[in-house]
């Protein structure tokens, strides 16, 4: 509990100086995971292996030979990354019980740096969704639902209807990872981002969510959704931490030929003081229908913040923005149709008892293993790929994709360094309200502001900005040039310092200490 | 325009996934309607984009075996196996025709 005292301090330094041991850190996080079980952020908690890893780390620190800043740091990984010896389910019946025989490259890299893998986090089934509500293990609850900040703003209903019905969603699909970081159960978590799946829950949970440039971080071992858009995402409590994790993950991987071969040099973020040389673009199309007036206000204030600090802030246009979500819908379902074909019950995963023929076994297995959302996308994707539709839908979408990507090229080519946009249309909605609309509708609505960056492969980051009137986090998004993560994160860090986003005041009963208030954030870098 | 039962049947066979109920078919109809918005965009003279990395040469490694010998590991995850084989039910038997299949589409 000593760790959580004091604002933003450096856990790594604490480990190095022996003020805390890796084992203590690990146990503390495991205990907190137990106390916050109701959040349903974790699908699997790898307690034994985590403690073993913590022990190894402790020995290294005692010898004075830590592997790096991440040594001994507890992390969590979204359950669509393969983790050797640990169940990887993608929150689907199709992979329940599937024990990966290998580590995804990004997982291996974190382990090689001495990070302690606490467990696998919850998500929408196969990362399809924007609420983290559609997985077979149930929905993830936003930790802010249990914060003093939210509770004091909620209109008290009848005594029986308390937080049980009032809780809000985390956003998705990397909701478990976002909730895990937000509730202090780990210092960093891996998510994935195909249409906004890291940035969306980051915004709703008040954490930093980084989507790196496509091709920077290996996808080997990340169970694919859309091969041409998927990227591993990074969730942390501050921008500096995101830079550290990025540093340990980025770089060419011979096992993923879509990673670029340029040499990647990990970087430390400078403390920017002078923004007068920056040109910030405000894309007018991101003032999308449905954007809450609150978020609009935060967005405006942010633009003013940059302007008053001397930066050049100009309105720009990305004319094809509103087609991004339609384009995504076609390309995503098409790639999904292809990617989900591997699940046939033969080599791994669920297998139906039906055994009359290979085809009927496959059909029954997939019927039993996939939920409606997944099956719906597979069928839509196959429709768009039919010979009679291929040109009109799939190829057409690929052409529109180029137009969307070109919009960004034009804007960045005109001297704009960074784009500033909202991340979501509103703050997190209550679960009961969210489930009134179906998954596809919700995804179409919620991905509108984040999707285009995936279409164009650009790096983008959500930075928690302030609290809404309901006491819930609101984040803003920065989009940068291809492979210019250093610039993107430098600007994000400057902004983060200006807005001083409040720490969540989580009210959680601990098993050992009774009611206890979690007041401080802690970063590790 | 509405999707015909023939196409729906065809999709079920291609995808080896079934529509299950009216909602499933509705879902597809809505998806198509949504996708139709693409036709509002003028894409004359625009080349389709496969990948944002199209201007780069993808890495191709040497055709050398660098890992493997993990037969046991891989077989562990399969439900039906015999020695080092994955066991599948008999192949070359097509899915039963629409009339004989247990599918929601039969009703339509």
Automatic annotation (TrEMBL), chain A:
Gene3D superfamilies: Amidase signature (AS) domain. Keywords: ATP-binding, Ligase, Mitochondrion, Nucleotide-binding, Protein biosynthesis, Transferase. Pfam families: Amidase (PF01425). GO terms for biological process: glutaminyl-tRNAGln biosynthesis via transamidation; mitochondrial translation. GO terms for molecular function: ATP binding; glutaminyl-tRNA synthase (glutamine-hydrolyzing) activity; transferase activity. GO terms for cellular component: glutamyl-tRNA(Gln) amidotransferase complex; mitochondrion. HAMAP family: GatA. This is GATA amidotransferase. The lineage of its organism: Eukaryota, Metazoa, Chordata, Craniata, Vertebrata.
UniProtKB/TrEMBL annotation, chain B:
GO terms for cellular component: glutamyl-tRNA(Gln) amidotransferase complex; mitochondrion. GO terms for biological process: glutaminyl-tRNAGln biosynthesis via transamidation; mitochondrial translation; regulation of translational fidelity. It comes from the Eukaryota. Transmembrane segments: none annotated. One of its GO terms (molecular function) is transferase activity. Keywords: Transferase. The keyword Transferase applies. This is GATC amidotransferase. It comes from Mesembrinibis cayennensis.
